[in-house]
Design a protein that fits this description.
Strand content: over 45%
CATH topology: Metal Binding Protein, Guanine Nucleotide Exchange Factor, Chain A
CATH architecture: Beta Complex
Strand order of the largest sheet: 5-6-7-8
Helix content: under 10%
Number of helices: 1
CATH superfamily: Domain of unknown function (DUF427)
Distance between the termini: 4 Å
Structural class: mainly beta
Number of strands: 9
Shape: globular
Largest sheet: 4 strands, antiparallel
CATH class: Mainly Beta
Length: 100
Amino acid sequence: MKAIWNNEVIAEAPVADLIRIEGNWYFPPKTLEWQFFTDSDHHTTCPWKGEASYYDINVNGRTNDFGAWYYPEPKPGSIERVKHDFSSYVAFWNGVEVVE
């Protein structure tokens, strides 16, 4: 699977390495092209997964504010619910295309 934004592959991993949660593919941190990511101060809260942190994506002079999110410390019970430790795995939105 590949995550693509602004015509650039920003993450790539075999589907077996990804975790699917609520319709979103979560990529292992080691599969991101880190040169495109910067920390954001944006946060949201999921009632059952906990507080999400975000990355801004910067590609070819364009910025996708909070285009990627992750849960650094998922709420107790959420890992058991998903059946995988998704701590720090990264999902995408806001125009990022995830394709096979």
